[in-house]
Design goal:
The protein is α/β, with parallel strands linked by helices. It has helices spanning 17-31, 47-57, 105-116; strands at residues 38-43, 60-67, 69-70, 73-74, 80-83, 93-101, 121-129, 139-140.
């Protein structure tokens, strides 16, 4: 398995913790009108903004993990579940939060699983979404 191809990316914007806090606050503002009852944070890096959003909105936070990586090396073409979404999403309006949407696959798979578990409404969100993410999350800071 090859690592991600970064050749099509132009410019890298390093984020400071202040940038992270600002983006997480913006994501919280974007999510608040939907009144999520529960936040699903996608581990690993998505747990950082998900925790801030959950605390700010006073929602419960449930972690989930799906990834292409093992020990930070890409080993599968598509993300695989390591920790599934909690059945606690059943009947609830939920937001699934990740730090970045690259291909869009991870959030799409999480969206589908949440609906299969009976979530009433699912909103996907990320701090950053690349323009080639398909599907892109409707909310990105």
């Amino acid at each position: 398995m090859k690592p991600y191809d970064y050749s099509h990316r132009t410019g890298i914007l390093p984020l400071t913790w202040d940038d992270f806090a600002r983006l997480s606050s913006r994501l919280t503002e974007l999510l608040e009108p939907s009144h999520p009852e529960l936040i699903v944070g996608l581990a690993r890096a998505g747990l950082f903004p998900a925790t801030l959003v959950a605390c700010s909105l006073r929602c419960e936070l449930y972690p989930a993990r799906l990834t292409r990586r093992l020990h930070d090396q890409v080993i599968t073409e598509t993300p695989t579940w390591k920790v599934p979404i909690s059945p606690a999403v059943s009947g609830k309006v939920i937001a699934i939060v990740d730090e970045m949407s690259d291909s869009g696959q991870t959030l799409a798979l999480a969206f589908t699983q949440a609906l299969e578990l009976g979530a009433r409404q699912v909103i996907t969100a990320s701090l950053v979404a690349h323009p080639w993410a398909a599907p892109a999350p409707p909310l990105a800071a």
